[in-house]
Task: inverse folding
């Protein structure tokens, strides 16, 4: 199974590839494209509906996320004005929203300046 951008999953249906030499017209390989649904977002702390909507848009658009180095499966996702702290199930079908905080532009600039020096 290969994953490509745009939430599409391509699966191979047919005989194993090593049977290629014995394959006839009735046993052709078939590739099937199916649409992968965005993950279900579950809110644990009653956040605002606008925040949930923004997180859903970020997740469906494959927004970059930073893994938490101390907790496997936990990520920070940067929104326009907020940072979302989430837990992503290994299957990828469900996301738990644990926390939201506002981005601090001054701290981000200071972090960039510290790494440049």
Result:
């Amino acid at each position: 199974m290969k994953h490509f951008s745009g939430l599409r999953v391509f699966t191979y249906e047919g005989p194993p590839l090593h049977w290629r030499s014995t394959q006839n017209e009735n046993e052709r390989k078939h590739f099937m494209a199916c649409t992968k649904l965005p993950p279900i977002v579950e809110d644990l702390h009653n956040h605002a509906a606008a925040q949930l909507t923004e997180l859903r848009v970020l997740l469906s658009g494959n927004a970059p996320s930073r893994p938490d180095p101390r907790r496997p499966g936990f990520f920070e996702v940067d929104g326009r004005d907020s940072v979302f702290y989430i837990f992503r199930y290994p299957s990828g079908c469900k996301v738990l929203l644990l926390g939201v905080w506002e981005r601090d532009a001054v701290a981000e600039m200071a972090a960039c300046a510290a790494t440049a020096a």
Remarks:
- The chain has two helices and eight strands.
- Helices lie at 49-60, 105-116.
- Residues 1-5 have pLDDT under 50 and may be disordered.
- The longest strand covers residues 94-102.
